[in-house]
Amino acid sequence: MTDLKRTPLYDLHREMGAKLVPFAGYEMPVQYPMGVMGEHQHTRSKAGLFDVSHMGQVILRGEGAAEALETLVPVDVVGLKPGRQRYAMFTNEGGGILDDFMVANRGDHLLLVVNAACKDADIAHLQKHLSGVEPVTDRALIALQGPQAEEALARLVSSVTDLKFMDFVSAEWNGAELWISRSGYTGEDGFEVSIPELRAEEFTRLLLEMDEVMPIGLGARDSLRLEAGLCLYGNDIGPEITPIEAGLNWAIPKVRRTGGDREGGFPGAARILDELANGASRKRVGLRPESRAPMRDGTPLFAHEADADPIGAVTSGGFGPSVGMPISMGYVPPQLATAGTQIWGEVRGKRLPVQITPMPFRPSTYRK
Amino acid sequence: MKYTEEHEWLRIDGDLVVVGISEHAAEQLGDVVFVELPELETQVARGDEICVIESVKAASDILAPLDGEIVEVNDALIDNPSLVNADATGDAWFFKMKIDDMGALDEFMTEDEYKDFIS
After folding, report:
1. Residues in chain A within 8 Å Cβ distance of B31
2. Residue A123, burial from CB neighbour count under 10 angstroms (0-12, 13-18, 19+)
3. How far is B15 from chain A (nearest CA, A)?
4. Any idea which residues bear N6-lipoyllysine here (chain B) (predicted)?
5. Would residue A250 count as lying in a domain?
6. B78 and A292 in contact by Cβ < 8 A?
7. Does the annotation flag A192 for ligand binding?
8. % of chain B with per-residue pLDDT over 70
9. Closest-CA residue in chain A for B60?
10. Amino acid A2: pLDDT
């Protein structure tokens, strides 16, 4: 077994009784003594603190960095204003997704936050095509999510109350420079805070001492993002799935589409622009099993109960604690992708009815 | 109460054997969100996968601990799967079975032996 890496908050996780598991090369907390269900509910009702230091933070510096990044992504980076962040994805020549990430305009540079499992490949990809790529290796990253996240974080950094969804600022806290965005991966209002690693435990401890803040593991992180209808890289999106199939059309603005001022010019543009115009051959949809049996990733989907051949599969699924029922997402042909359509999923050899459902499963509460 | 190596408990109730999962197993599973029970009046063989428990983490099976017939199932678990976490060795029994020879229970672990087994 290869050595697992640890985040700057590893000792704190141990102290709080976390169950640690290998995840993307790191030893990460999957749950704390409260348990997945309790942690999920706590985040929805108060404030949950997540260690996401395993994710990659990468600076892209230099004149024309935004134009340069646009050669790798189908989104509008040039039009991203200073102090703002947006969702983006690297595409491959086939139009598939190499990784999805957040990009912020920090004035004199861009900051990318990428998935842990992809970060080495992402950095190599960036360095191959662009200059001014600087991986950030001395910072922790935490997320504070939930309706009381603002109140809690404002006790340490009062200016966060000024931020709106997807704003990104630097703020000073006791001599440490924090990078703070109002964003997250739970469907809740909340923040992501990049902290110099030597100050990370001290800062995190102060948050955890607050009554409304509890530590949350990867287990609840997954059920929270699933209820919010957000994709998990490696499950719901990947190198064989295009942004259009994944229903991420909203991330591709007019300016990068056919007829736009900066049309195409990213890997896989031919296929992606064609799918935008003519539709994709499969679509990511929300799925609501009609029985209480969860349909987990890999569950084959069928148009009719007795059909021999599957029409698609579940890519993420489980129980949604806040919606109180099993929920899934997966891929089906476009003619079956309309909300209300009933299809079938095979669980332990039994065909069970499942309905196409709009996402998110639970309305998001971003502070726009 | 007796325990199996599959973390099930067995309790004699008149001429029936009541079966559930241990508190240790419930704790390891995490929050239970779905339970599928066996059909009534089916003959089962030892080792058959006859129940499914799904937690927030994963699905797992309950095996028939002995040969016999399923004569009662605990429907309360269908509506309230979290009973398994709340009262694993009490209200959250899964099924009752009729077996030919109660002596077959002797081979299973006592509570103390089970505690050693999981420690």
Report:
1. 35-38, 321
2. middle
3. 32
4. 57
5. no
6. yes
7. yes
8. 100
9. A348
10. 67
Q: What are phi and psi of A47, to 5 degrees?
A: -150, 130
Helix axes of A36-45 and A218-227: crossing angle, nearest 10 degrees? 60
Task: Name the minimum distance, in Å, from the CA of A314 to any CA of chain B.
Answer: 15
On average, the pLDDT of chain B sits at 94
Q: Are residues A25 and A157 in the same domain?
A: yes
Q: Which residues of A touch B78 (CB under 8 A)?
A: 292
Burial string for A176-202 (b: 16+ CB within 10 Å, else e) reads eebbbbbbbbbbbbbbbbbbbbebbbe
Distances (CA, A) of A242 to A170, A236, A271, A299, B67: 34, 11, 9, 21, 52
- Asked if the B2-100 domain carries CATH number 2.40.50.140, the reply is no
Token pair 């509506």: residue: B79
Within a domain: A273: no
B34 chain-A contacts, CB cut-off 8 A: 292-294, 319, 326
Q: Say what the pLDDT of residue B101 is.
A: 87
The whole-number pLDDT of residue B81 equals 95
What is the pairing mode between strands A47-51 and A213-215? parallel
pLDDT along chain A (368 residues), means of 10: 89 97 96 96 98 98 96 98 98 98 97 98 98 98 98 98 98 98 98 98 98 98 98 98 98 98 98 98 98 95 98 97 96 98 96 98 94
Domain count, chain A: 2
Distance between CA atoms of residues A140 and B10, nearest Å = 49
Residue A67's pLDDT is: 98
8 Å CB contact between A64 and A131: no
For strand A176-181 and strand B2-3, is the pairing parallel, antiparallel, or unpaired?
unpaired
Nearest CA in chain B to A324: B33
Q: Which pLDDT belongs to residue B57?
A: 84
Put simply, the answer to whether B34 touches A37 (Cβ < 8 Å) is no
For residue A207, the enclosing domain spans 10-54+137-227
- Alpha-carbon gap, residue A232 to A97, rounded angstroms: 12
- CATH code, A212: 3.30.1360.120
A293 in B contact zone (CB under 8 Å): yes
Residue of B nearest to A325 (CA): B33
Residues A224 and A31 sit within 8 Å (Cβ to Cβ): no
Domain boundary among A183, A205, A227: A227
* Contact between B30 and A326 using a beta-carbon 8 Å cutoff: no
Say whether both A215 and A292 belong to one domain: no
